[in-house]
């Protein structure tokens, strides 16, 4: 099973070296010449000229289409499979020879071309039989078309030049042959069903060149099944009906390599559009127009373009708004990288997967322009984020003012009013020392509680502990935390006041979330400097699974941090705790 072995890959030394290509081309030309000479000089062929033409049609088509495929895609075994199909057809053509030895070899290979064609059709486009079902069909074909056929030849038949015949039992030989033809007919029909199922499973329309190729495969298998079925039910060589069926079958089988070369030519013409793309990208192309240029180069009007924004760890469209890459299998995605960093993603027609060279060429040609467009998109995303941040800051300010007004009205204000009333009562009871003393005591308690509430409100506006530095404020925060918290301060001296304030609020909100949601037993707060930035990290050993900064309770903190040109990052894998890290630029 030489051709089955090709499905495992090609050794590096055999990959489309020029000397090998020319040697195979010369062997193919020699095979055509020998086939023609044998047919024209055969003593047992009717219409030898037509027979030679049909055989040459298939040998030429498969050998030279295979050479083109091997040259264009040297790492794929598909080209070698096509070449093998052409030479196997040549081996079967030896049955037209007048000498017993080549005649016997030709008869032994008489049914093998159909099996190899089945192998080629099912192995497209990778050159490998990917599924066990396909492998079973091809192996069965080899067993029947070669092994069982040789057993049948042992019982004679096929004329007096059959050198392997050990007895002459024409009936047994014919029974073997009819059984072989019937099984091969079923295998050809099964191959058609596999092609149909493969197309249905992809759930996508095939591009035009690929449609022609798959249809040519199916037509070749259908006509081969019809030819073998006709022979199994009694039609024999020489009968006009059988000869016409054979001619149409050979013509149909020979269409497959033509369709294949047509597809390669179409792909090559498509790759020529990469040059036009380079011309279009010489200028600074906006992101929206860049998508149109790529769609034209790939000949896919459904193309969608997304840009990777590393700061936000998300994909965005040309308008800067987040987008999700299609993951349902109905579309294919090509990730484009530049200098090892992802830049953009093309979501395209899955049929382009059959033209990887085209997609790679377009991606390479557009990488620089896509990187520039990504920067534009990142700027738009920053502007969108800035608009949202400003709106949230205004909303947060309004909400905070309402909270302060409500707390003052319901707390300290009410208590001060009560103190005022008690002082008026005290004025009336100045002559009753005991009652006056009780009123003074009550008023003093109300004033003390009002003072505590005012201090709590002031702490929410600007923590008093920060007057002694961020470390002191964090130590005080850790003391009041609901879980055991340790503080490691490695930032040296004082930080700028806005940085200390932002860092304090990040730690306060993060520890509040730890107490509410994390189910943690301990937490750590660490502050250090790194390349001109103050870093603060709050980590816990809780259940993890926290939302990121977008849409979560930390959104307001992210706005505060980003207002200082910093960034807030939340890493919270389920079951592995949560780490909140803020980066706050603060100079050297």
Describe this structure in words.
- Helix content is 62%, strand content 11%.
- By secondary structure, the protein is of the alpha+beta class.
- The strands form two sheets. Strands 3-2-1-5-4 form a five-stranded antiparallel sheet. Strands 6-7-8-10-9 form a five-stranded mixed sheet.
- A hairpin with a 5-residue loop joins strand 2 and strand 3.
- Helix 2 runs parallel beside helix 4 and helix 10 runs antiparallel to helix 11.
Architecture blueprint of SSEs:
Layout: H1 2-6, H2 18-40, H3 48-72, H4 78-93, H5 100-108, H6 112-123, H7 132-153, H8 170-202, H9 208-232, H10 240-280, H11 287-298, E1 304-309, E2 314-316, E3 322-323, E4 332-338, E5 341-348, H12 356-428, H13 433-461, H14 470-480, E6 484-490, H15 497-518, E7 522-530, E8 533-540, H16 555-563, E9 567-571, E10 579-585
Parallel strand pairs: 6-7
Antiparallel strand pairs: 1-2, 1-5, 2-3, 4-5, 7-8, 8-10, 9-10
Helix pairs in contact: 2-3, 2-4, 3-4, 3-10, 4-5, 4-6, 6-7, 6-8, 6-9, 7-8, 8-9, 9-10, 10-11, 10-12, 11-12, 12-13, 14-15
Q: Report strand order across the widest sheet.
A: 3-2-1-5-4
Secondary-structure-derived class: alpha+beta
Give the overall average pLDDT. 77
Number of helices: 16
* Rg, Cα atoms, Å: 41 Å
Shape: rod-shaped
| Largest sheet entry | 5 strands, antiparallel
Strand segment count? 10
**What is the helix content?**
55-70%
Proportion of residues in extended strands:
5-15%
Low-pLDDT runs of 5+ residues are: 1-10
| H and E string | HHHHHHHHHHHEEEEEHHHEHEEHEE
How many angstroms does the end-to-end distance come to?
72 Å
């Amino acid at each position: 099973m030489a051709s089955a072995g090709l499905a495992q890959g090609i050794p590096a030394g055999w990959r489309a070296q020029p000397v090998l290509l020319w040697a195979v081309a010369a062997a193919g030309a020699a095979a055509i010449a020998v086939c023609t000479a044998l047919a024209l000089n055969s003593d047992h062929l009717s219409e030898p000229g037509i027979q030679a033409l049909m055989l040459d049609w298939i040998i030429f088509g498969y050998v030279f289409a295979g050479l083109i495929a091997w040259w264009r895609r040297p790492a794929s075994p598909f080209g070698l499979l096509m070449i093998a199909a052409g030479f196997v057809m040549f081996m079967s053509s030896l049955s037209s020879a007048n000498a017993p030895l080549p005649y016997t070899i030709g008869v032994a290979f008489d049914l093998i071309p159909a099996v190899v064609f089945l192998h080629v059709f099912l192995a497209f486009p990778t050159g490998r039989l990917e599924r066990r079902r396909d492998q079973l069909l091809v192996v069965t074909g080899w067993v029947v078309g070669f092994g069982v056929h040789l057993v049948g030849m042992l019982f004679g038949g096929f004329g007096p030049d059959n050198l392997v015949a050990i007895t002459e039992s024409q009936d047994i030989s014919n029974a073997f042959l009819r059984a072989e033809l019937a099984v091969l007919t079923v295998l050809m029909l099964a191959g058609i069903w596999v092609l149909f199922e493969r197309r249905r499973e992809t759930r996508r329309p095939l591009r035009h060149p690929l449609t022609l190729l798959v249809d040519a495969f199916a037509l070749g298998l259908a006509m081969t099944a019809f030819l073998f079925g006709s022979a199994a039910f009694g039609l024999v060589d020489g009968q006009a009906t059988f000869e016409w069926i054979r001619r149409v079958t050979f013509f149909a089988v020979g269409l497959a390599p033509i369709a294949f070369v047509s597809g390669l030519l179409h792909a090559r013409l498509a790759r020529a559009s990469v040059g036009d793309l380079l011309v279009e990208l010489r200028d600074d192309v906006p992101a929206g127009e860049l998508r149109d240029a790529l769609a034209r180069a790939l000949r896919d009007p459904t193309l969608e373009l997304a840009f990777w924004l590393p700061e936000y760890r998300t994909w965005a469209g040309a308008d800067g708004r987040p987008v999700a890459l299609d993951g349902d299998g109905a579309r294919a995605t090509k990730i484009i990288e530049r200098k090892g960093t992802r830049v953009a993603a093309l979501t395209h027609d899955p049929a382009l997967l059959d033209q990887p060279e085209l997609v790679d060429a377009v991606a390479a040609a557009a990488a620089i322009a896509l990187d520039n467009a990504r920067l534009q998109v990142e700027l738009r995303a920053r502007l969108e984020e800035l608009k949202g941040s400003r709106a949230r800051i205004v909303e947060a300010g309004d909400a905070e003012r309402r909270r302060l007004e409500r707390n003052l009205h319901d707390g300290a204000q009410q208590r001060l009013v009560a103190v005022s009333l008690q002082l008026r009562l005290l004025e009336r009871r100045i002559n009753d020392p005991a009652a006056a003393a009780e009123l003074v005591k009550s008023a003093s308690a109300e004033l003390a509680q009002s003072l505590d509430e005012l201090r709590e409100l002031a702490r929410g506006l600007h923590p008093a502990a920060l007057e002694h530095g961020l470390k002191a404020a964090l130590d005080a925060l850790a003391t009041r935390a609901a879980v055991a918290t340790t503080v490691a301060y490695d930032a040296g001296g004082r930080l700028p006041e806005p940085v200390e304030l932002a860092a304090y609020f990040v730690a306060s909100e993060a520890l509040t979330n730890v107490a509410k949601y994390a189910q943690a037993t301990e937490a750590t707060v660490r502050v250090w400097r790194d390349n001109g930035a103050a870093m603060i990290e709050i980590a816990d050993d809780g259940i993890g699974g926290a939302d990121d900064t977008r849409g979560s309770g930390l959104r307001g903190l992210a706005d505060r941090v980003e207002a200082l040109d910093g960034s807030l990052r939340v890493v919270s894998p389920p079951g592995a705790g949560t780490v909140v890290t803020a980066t706050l630029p603060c100079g050297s």
